Predict the 3D structure of the following.
Amino acid sequence: MAERERLVGSHTSSRNSEVIHAGLYYPPGSLKADLCLEGRERLYAWCARHGVGHRRIGKLLVAVEENERERLQALAANARACGVD
């Protein structure tokens, strides 16, 4: 177990966001973007092979203010350029 403290959930394991990242924030073609996409697919495949429950629920990004709309559109374009589905 990779835990610094005596009890689970009191250090390293408490920092897990429990999400499989899509990779939509990284520059297209960057190592981070490529590894995120590959790692995501490999993790889904591993979960399926080993019977680990998971759900592909997607990610919902919302512009709350009108001035955030342009940034949201740029993020969507970046995600498409990275190959994020």
